[in-house]
Amino acid sequence: MKKLISMILCLSVAFALSACAELDAIRNTKLPPLPTPEARATEEPAPVEIESLPEAGRETPKPAISALPVDASGAEIGDRVIIYSKKTTENLDAPDGSLILSFSYVTPTVRIDERPDAAKAINEQLVLFDEAYISGSGSEGGKNHLLEEALDNYTYVHDKGAELNTTFTSARTVKSLRADGSVLSFRYWTSVYTGGKSGSYSYYGYNFSTQTGEKLTLDKLSPDVETLKSALGDRIISVAREDEELYSKIAQNDFDADSALRALVREGNWYFDSDGMVFFPEFGELMPEENGFSMFTIPYELLAGVIDDRYLPAVREGTSELEILPLDEVEDGTVWSIDRLALSEGDELYLKISGTAYDVTVSNFYYVDEADSADRFYESERHWYASFMTDCALQIRTAIPGGMPDLMIAYTDADYAEHRLFLSENSENGHVTLVDDSIEAVG
Fold this sequence. Notes:
CATH class of the largest domain: Alpha Beta
Number of domains: 3
CATH topology of the largest domain: Heat Shock Protein 90
Helix content: 10-25%
Shape: globular
Distance between the termini: 50 Å
């Protein structure tokens, strides 16, 4: 095996983020050389990686809890937060050209025009977080280690004639769950497959202050962190007890259920989203994985008076209307464009928003045409996010397919209701149009 590895060309890993120039030194930092064969370069899109829980955990109901009549509004909407997402995929081959490792990750890059120093600080930490994933200083093992395992497995399979899978995968995706004038929360999802019936899965919550750029930890949320942890533990237990079946499954294990739930109040295992503060276990921590996986959301109404008010979400206002306009049909100076997104050669368009839309995302998606599917549209790769857009536009360059759309525009309104629209071609006049999610089947 050592001979095989020594014959393999070593590669370096370089970061290529489209962020501000101040990050160049970090982007160009070389990681330890890899005992890797030649990576296959391809112009085709990287394989779709999605957050998918083990089947037993997909239908776990979200615990319900009665909201208290407490004002849970916090900071102002504040400065606009824009997030770009870049996916990096390396397909690594054995000497005979067989794919033995697919390694991928998504890097978010943050832009806050009014607070560039805060954005810079956040981006530096995000880049280092990627480096930990690649090099193996994080909990996922790293590319070098996985590649060595994949080569060992490949050699064993070919030497012994074993009927085993010779392709390992490691994929990490990330989504922004809340972004406003005070908080930016990311949820990282990692799935690793190294043979066998199933892989391993993990979540990680990464939170930042958009005012200062510093990482938000529990001790930043309240001046009395021990009292805070106790209060959060109480609320997690309350949320869990609302679901009697779930709580009984946790209590069936050889430990005290309440103590196990309190143990979830720890760094890395929480994030903010539109509903509240979310805590989650490791897979198999509270109960066997086949019994499901649950997240515990403490509504903001139950966090008022527990965490500093500045970390509570601001009150939303306004209505919104979206339209898509060809660039050559818009008179100069009549539309304020806040950004430009070039996805592919094709039409130059304005996504114009009148009023205020929140959590605006531009993503590719995939469609599930199944009658019993709870949802038919799933985000596969996110390209762009803005915490809000008010009376402005995003310039987009993209090809519009003649059949089923492949680009989704999603946003939430003042009531946090999600809306999804798709860029499509009007079959009657050939103009680009926005269609809603009532579209039925792949065309």
